[in-house]
Specification:
Layout lengths: L28 H10 L2 H5 L18 H18 L4 H10 L8 H11 L8 H12 L13 H7 L17 H4 L5 H25 L4 H4 L3 H13 L5 H31 L4 H6 L9 H19 L2 H23 L6 H5 L9 H14 L2 H17 L1
Helix pairs in contact: 1-4, 3-4, 3-9, 3-12, 4-7, 4-9, 5-15, 7-9, 9-12, 9-14, 11-12, 15-17, 15-18
The structure holds magnesium ion (MG).
Magnesium ion binds next to loops.
Length: 382
């Protein structure tokens, strides 16, 4: 790739793949990672997984798939402006939510609950597990065998307790080093994407209103700007003009501040980036604060809206029932899942519960609903 800054991730400085492979002929290593992610089954399932609104509630809302594509778009723009590796950024963005359960956070919280005695469940760790172990596509290795840098970026956080089991990709949580700049920026691109598109989806659903949002600086400023420039504009176009400005303000702030930090700290290569003791991709303090207030607004008024919560209650029942049924009758799990190589310790109870968690986590919203209906119908007959 041309015009990369010295501190960008490159094929030459990559820590490589767990299973050695010949380099691709016409692609970079990170392009190959991105391509493997796009061809994976877990990626296709993102289309039918809830972001905030359950997939069948409306065709216009974001799903995990469109969310991930929006994150990739934002992340690539930032990467290009900072002369960082766009391909790596795109790979991380497209993979960052692969481990999400059906029904969004409601699904993850319940599955974590169910797995409490067996090591818990965390979607971010699960994303890494999907690309490292659960995808079955290649003859010579399990998973997608992605580069270290893609895996490092996918693993956004990890407890000190769980880090040692993850080998090299877990060490930064023990020795407090930083991931690549590409990973840092993709993490923030994720925030920019959901903060902005949840405003759009929230308004579309009618669960939040422009009046309520006017308390929030990040919304109010662009809203006043648009109203002044286009007084007669209809609501849909007005909202879009506001949301695109919200994204732009955050992206520009992030690029400007990060450019300054990079000039100040002058990392010479990716190892310097890892060892510098702080992240170099950041928002300005004001933007960080504005971001935070939008986040808490959305938490209070959208994610905890009674209508969203009622979906949460249904999701909890479905996940809990599926978990109980599979615990009692592991043979209900499709035989393909059980035959996976990582499932060889089926006699061991923790091994079995992990297979169950993997199976439930991999479900789309509608598959989980259908499985639940199928099993409860069978239960009633029995
Ligand atoms: Mg995300």
């Amino acid at each position: 790739m041309e015009n990369l800054a010295p501190y960008a991730a490159t094929d030459q400085s990559s820590k490589g793949r767990v299973y050695q492979e010949a380099s691709p002929q016409y692609r970079s290593e990170y392009q190959r990672d991105r391509d493997r992610i796009i061809h994976s089954a877990a990626f296709r399932r993102l289309e039918y997984k809830t972001q905030v609104f359950v997939n069948h509630e409306g065709d216009l809302y974001r799903t995990r798939l469109t969310h991930s594509i929006e994150v990739a778009q934002i992340a690539r723009s930032i990467a290009r402006a900072l002369q960082l590796n766009e391909d790596l950024t795109e790979a991380i963005a497209l993979a960052h939510d692969l481990g999400h359960t059906p029904f969004g956070h409601a699904g993850q919280d319940k599955l974590n609950d169910c797995m409490h005695k067996y090591g818990g469940f965390e979607h971010n760790l699960q994303s890494l597990r999907v690309v490292d172990k659960l995808e079955e596509r290649y003859a010579e290795f399990p998973g997608l065998n992605l580069t270290f840098e893609s895996r490092e970026g996918i693993l956004k956080h990890c407890s000190v307790k769980k880090a040692p089991a993850l080998n090299e990709v877990g060490t930064r949580f023990l020795n407090k080093t930083q991931p690549s700049l590409e990973a840092q920026l993709t993490n923030l691109a994720d925030e920019i994407a959901y903060n902005s598109h949840d405003v759009d989806d929230g308004l579309r659903s009618g669960l939040i209103t422009i009046e309520q949002l006017s308390e929030i600086t990040l919304f109010r400023r662009p809203y006043e700007e648009v109203k002044k420039a286009y007084p007669g504009l209809n609501e849909r176009r007005t909202i879009h003009e506001v949301v695109r400005r919200m994204i732009n303000h955050q992206v520009v702030d992030l690029i400007d501040i990060s450019k300054g930090l990079l000039q100040e700290h002058k990392p010479e290569n990716i190892e310097d980036v890892r060892n510098i003791g702080q992240t170099l991709i950041r928002f300005s303090p004001t933007m960080k604060e504005d971001n935070q207030s939008l986040k808490s607004f959305l938490r209070q008024n959208l994610y905890r809206h009674p209508q969203v919560i009622s979906m949460t209650t249904k999701a909890h029942t479905i996940i809990q029932d599926l978990f109980n049924w599979f615990m009692e009758n592991p043979e209900l799990i499709s035989s393909q899942e059980i035959q996976k190589e990582n499932a060889s310790d089926l006699t061991d109870s923790i091994g079995t519960t992990r297979i169950i968690a993997d199976y439930i986590a991999g479900m789309t919203d509608r598959y989980a609903i259908a499985e639940h209906q199928k099993i409860s119908a069978a239960e009633t007959l029995a």
